[in-house]
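U., I forgot to send this yesterday:
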Amino acid sequence: MGDVQTYGEYRRARDGPDRQPIRKRPRIAPPRDDDYLDKRGRYEPPVEPEDAGDSRGFRPSMLNFKAFLLTQDDSITDDEALEKYSEYKLEFNRQQLNAFFVTHKDEEWFREKYYPDLMAARRKILDHCVKERLRVFMDMYDQGLMKELRLDTEHSDDIELLLDCFVLKLESGSDEDVDKLLKKETIEEEFHKTSSVHLRTLHPSVKRDEVEAVCKKYPGFLRLCLSDPAPDRKWYRRGWITFTRDTKVKEICFSLSSVRLKDVDVSPVLNKDLSRRIRGITCLANDKSSMRNDLKLITKIIKILDKKYELWETRNDEIIGEQSSNPLLKNITQYLIEEMSAEEDELLGYAEENSADTKSLELEVELAGVLDTLVMYLRMVHSLDFYNCALYNTEEEMPNRCGIFHIRESLSKQSVTEEQLITYQEDFSKRMNKLSSSWSLLTDEDCVKLGAKDKEEAVEIFVQANTEELGNDKFLCPLSGKKFKGAEFVRKHIFNKHAEKVEEVKKEVDFFNNYLKDPRRPTLPEKPKPKPTEKPAAKEPVKYAEADGGHPPRRGQDARHRPSVKDRLGYRSSAIPVSQGRQDPRGIVDYSDVDFAEDIFA
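Result:
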């Protein structure tokens, strides 16, 4: 080894000729654009590892337009980029909706909302509840209990008493009990008051029967209400168990603290009584212009909900349009028309009011009476709190079957401008229209864009999957194990002998399509974006006195009073002072996503 001159020659001489060379780790080329294309040439985004198994967490992040462009060829035109990005967004959302459906399709809460048979059963129960509430309301209306009704905070006690009477009649209370309640006398059984326990955590796979089986062990149990799973709570549900007023709910709550369903503690707590049942909104709603605007809105909403539950017959009028036989809407058009002396004002030269001029609120008593009856009708019959723009869907199963109610603040003498009234009316109309529009199902055209399934196509796939060719013109039906001489005979056999399975395939198609039609369908929430961290502000350079030449003072020197030696000698430095660089005046370019007018996910 004395002839070696380099380290490599030394190592080869030391190890000998039989030593295998060291293998280096192979390099992996970065993915190309073609690696993310499916068979149809459409872009399929790679799935992030943290999102792959998180079926109950957040949906995968969709590429923004800038990131999408990085996956495309440099020669792509603007129109092609927009078209391809639109297709990518649509396909991405299709995949997410289908994945969510597959994950939750076997859970009871999901099937109750969208599976045809369970939807029909649930709808039948809801129809019965609404019609029962209508019967009680009309009974109270015919008795004249709504005649002197005024929905303002000055009459809060009377309104709450009226709600108690309504609940008492719903709970099969007698007319004698209602009379005692109106006279504020003591009644033997307070059906309108309940006690309740709140279950804070219920696993989404827990069924209603399982929870009710636990509740029925305790005396005084009345009903159970379960919420839909909450995306922000890892899809856990909540529950409310209602008992009679005289039930010892504290002991029951303590007993429930040891109950576990699906290996999850139900976390029971006592549910308090409503702290404030009657709540007020702005007094601007008392003005006659606001009331007339509200009357137009509430008339439209009542017609929609009455038609949904088939409460009243409707007929079409050539001039007015659709007319309802609801007695509360009789002659309603005379209150919807505004009157003004336009001709007289024009001849006398009266100018229109300036929107900036102040005025007092004007209350029209007759108009208020008509509106308040309709507001109470919505609240009692349809569980819709008009002035809160909220529909309480599960109220019939909740501890309070007619709970929170929003009314107008009492009329005050404060002065308002026309602009304030217009702003309030426009904002309120937007909120109410947003609520009513959420009741409309998506059109068939929109559902097709989301990947809606076709019944005939699904049935054909089912038949083909259950037709096996054995050879020699022999075919087998796996459903029954029988053999046939032709595929057409297997097809007839499936439709004749396995019609229930064919029907089940059709129901599965309706199941999926019902989910797509719902504009408020549950989906995985988007992952929240991390908050941008603020960079610490740059420290300003330390400035020293000009008399010191811009330099720090020497040790023991007072910079405020004692100049430097050069200054005392009259010397001026010709050197250019150096300061910290200033901030770049150019703004940061913001690359926002591209919006599309026909985007149904907006």
